[in-house]
Amino acid sequence: MGPGPARETEVTLTVNGQSRTVAVDNRTSLLDLLRERLGLTGTKKGCDHGQCGACTVLIDERRANACLALTVAHEGAEITTVEGLAEGTGQLHPLQQAFMRYDAFQCGYCTPGQLCSAVALLSEGGPSAVTADLTSEPALTPGEIRERMSGNLCRCGAYPNIVRAIDATVTP
Amino acid sequence: MRSFAYTRAADGHEAVAAYRQGAAYLGGGTNLVDLMRLGVATPDSLIDVTRATSGQVDDGPGGGLLIGAAVRNSELAADLRVRERYPVLARAVLDGASWQVRNMATVGGNLLQRTRCPYFQDVLTACNKRRPGSGCQAMAPGAETANLAILGQSAACAATHPSDMAVALTALGATVHVCGPDSREERGIPMPGLHRLPETTPERDTVLAPGELITAVELPPPPPGRSTYRKVRERASFAFALVSVAAVLEVADGTVTSSRLALGGVAHAPWRCHAAEQAMRGEPATADTYAGAAEAELAAARPLPGNEYKVTLARNLIAAVLEELTS
Lengths: 172, 327
Description:
The structure holds two protein chains of two kinds.
Chain A: E1 8-15, E2 18-25, H1 30-37, E3 56-59, E4 62-65, E5 78-80, H2 94-101, H3 111-123, H4 142-148, H5 159-170
Parallel strand pairs in A: 1-5
Antiparallel strand pairs in A: 1-2, 3-4, 3-5
Chain B: E1 5-8, H1 12-18, E2 23-26, H2 32-38, E3 45-48, E4 57-59, E5 65-68, H3 73-78, H4 80-85, H5 87-95, H6 99-104, H7 107-112, H8 165-172, E6 175-180, E7 183-190, E8 213-219, E9 226-232, E10 243-252, E11 255-264, E12 271-272, H9 274-280, H10 287-298, H11 309-326
Parallel strand pairs in B: 1-3, 2-3
Antiparallel strand pairs in B: 4-5, 5-8, 6-7, 6-8, 9-10, 10-11, 11-12
Helix pairs in contact in B: 5-8, 9-10, 10-11
């Protein structure tokens, strides 16, 4: 590489509870880091444009599109992927169990993103676009769940059972 | 994607000092990273400003708020003060994008996102915004115009500004705070003055000089009356506006005493509806008044072949939102 500022950066972040230090080309998305460098292929690449949600992971406990996140901008971040949802408990996450019980998928490609998104949904407060009273803390009705999951597309159309699985986890 | 250098700025002065031609400020990256992947944006360095400006919403005078440019969209929409005092803003932010994107996107970046005109995003087509002087594919016969402008466009460009939040900020008369390399002082730009109409230079989305950085958005004290935001799109969620309306309306004794209206999805900038506001002032708060006001505003519309529907949609949406705020 010629003179000029570095185009590669050493980044340390925590992935599913483990500290990882990697030197990355600045262009590396968090999605490509997880899949190509760290061997965590549970997170899926769908559109690579932030439109489908297949790459949804938790960054510092908030759901985000890993395809739009530059690794270099996430020094010190805590990342949780689908591989980390069950970690430590020896049991699948209640949402993973509910997705199985309610048959909330067909091909399964969008499922890791759906799961990470739904895990975040359970802990996020505040209104959504379909909440009538903005100042209230709305109940997570099926209508609220649908709106809050709109960032995750499913080409098989498993939406009804995805909503049932999340609803069953919200109100067991 | 073109290779780039990366630096993280600790504060606003460090960010603007680091700016050079060819650099770009990085917020949440939800639009910029995508444009870089598409080859539309080709910065040779990124200056990460997510820690350079405030990530807090602070109280301002008279119940107003000062929103740091690094505040995430999801945090802004969840802030109880915004929900209670500025429902038009909370609704606009919640109507934008998906929960994932709102968790990433910053307030500053939301304002500076680029148009989703299909020709701007396709490097194989002509676009005066992307490559000045190359022409505008949207003006060619048979072009895909359904999502393009009906107000204020030029022969050079019919792109629309995609932000919902900017439309609400226009209705609220918010001020965008900016700092630049040439002045230690901040300057304030009242909305919708940040964004400009395309004229013959559509490559410039905003009035910002190269290297100027948005540091905060100031909301004036909550306006009297009621406010809301309504967005029409091709699916129920996670899509850009075909047309949207942000409205603040005050009615006393059955008469419209004050109003501020703005349209989204119809122009190169959030569209402040001066004609409609003037037509309503002091008039009875009735469906007839609102229909007349909407008619007055849309008289200036010059749709392209294929997006005439937006004129009807905007007219009906203005009237419907005003009736909702009156009921």
